[in-house]
Write a structure and sequence with these properties.
By secondary structure, this protein is an alpha+beta fold. It contains three helices and seven strands; from the N terminus they run βααββββββα. It has a five-stranded antiparallel β-sheet, covered by helices on one side.
């Protein structure tokens, strides 16, 4: 993997070199009694995009487990701007915006046709050693390598 070109300043969904996007269609079973997508379904949409992103860097959940680390989500933030509705096609973009001490991923859920923003979100995951269940305060070298970066010296 070539070393990614990192932009100056803070990484964002728009400028991150580690980005993936999926397109989904809203199904009937996603709706609440108000006939809009139930708020909890957005977390599933984010998981789909996150898996596509992790696949892209070669570090999805089986690879994480094989490397000896679990990466539980410890923080989740969602900000709804507009509802998604039955039959609507949506795009869910995910990008890694921080990796040094934790894995932070930002998300944008938008209408696939118009690009109208529906939801912004973010997750934070931390590395946990599978052997002793201890949280790591620095992301392990395997993540750095999957991102095409050189980890800092210990």
């Amino acid at each position: 993997m070539n070393k990614p070109l990192l932009p100056e300043g803070k990484l964002t969904l728009a400028n991150s070199p580690w980005r993936a996007e999926v397109e989904l269609q809203i199904q009937f079973y996603d709706l609440d009694p108000m006939e809009i997508v139930w708020h909890g379904r957005y977390v599933e949409y984010m998981e789909t995009a996150r898996c596509a992103l992790l696949d892209k860097i070669g570090y999805n959940y089986p690879a994480m487990k094989e490397s000896g680390y679990g990466w539980p989500v410890i923080d989740l933030r969602l900000r709804y701007a507009a509802p998604a509705r039955f039959g609507q096609r949506i795009k869910v973009a995910a990008a890694i915006v921080e990796w040094e001490n934790r894995l932070c991923i930002d998300y944008l859920i938008s209408d696939a046709a118009s690009g109208t923003r529906l939801t912004r979100a973010a997750t934070v995951q931390v590395a946990v050693q599978m052997s002793n269940h201890e949280m790591c305060f620095v992301s392990p070298p395997v993540l750095w390598h999957k991102l095409g970066l050189t980890p800092p010296a210990p």
